[in-house]
Amino acid sequence: MENNYHEVIVHYLMAIVGGFFGGYAIFTRMNVFGSAQTANLIDLVRDILGSNYIESMIRIGALLIYISAMIIATILTYRTKWKLQYLVLYLELACIIVLGIIPESVNPIIALYPCFFVTAFQWCVFKGALGYTSSTIFSTNNLKQTILSITEYFLIEDPQIKQGKLKKGCFFGGTLFCFHSGVALAYILHIFFAFNAIWFLSILIFINLAYFIYHDKYQNNYIFQHIKKMI
């Protein structure tokens, strides 16, 4: 139960970060979504067929960076014993610094190269919780799973299955809420600080890092566990 509770907290915290990255990219870099490749690949086909080869190369660069992040994350998962959850946060702090110093005049796709890398890396490391596969960097499947689960809850008669569907719907719904809370935060900060809004994301990263360290330090501490039981 404790591990499940921790998994959900981590998942939701990272969903807020993912929402902030996505919102910041769209609000500050000409509506370019820096956390996925669907729009990039569609535009890539258009640019190739339209003989816009310079733009095509820029978009291919974004695709290769996204792919490389997934490959690196997978290799590190299988070939090392590193705590990749921490590495994700360190990479995101580095990304914030780079995004914060890239001028507005830079091509928005190129400007978001760091974002493409770290969000893909985050996606591979933070894959979900409670046995559910759930993205923390975009929300389409989370929306689908929320709607399907809640709909099934009202259609199914078996009480045990109903509870399972409700639990699933609440989990994915919570992910949606946290992701779009990050988006909302990015928008509000963008209104007041424009491109400099990215620096505020570092606060969220440090909060997540503090929680990770706190949990890892005290999860096996007998005194801490005893106090929790008393409470």
TrEMBL record:
Keywords: Membrane, Transmembrane, Transmembrane helix. The keyword Transmembrane applies. The keyword Transmembrane applies. The chain crosses the membrane at residues 9-27, 57-77, 84-102, 108-126, 170-191, 197-214. InterPro entries: DUF1275. This is DUF1275 domain-containing protein. It comes from Allocoprobacillus halotolerans.
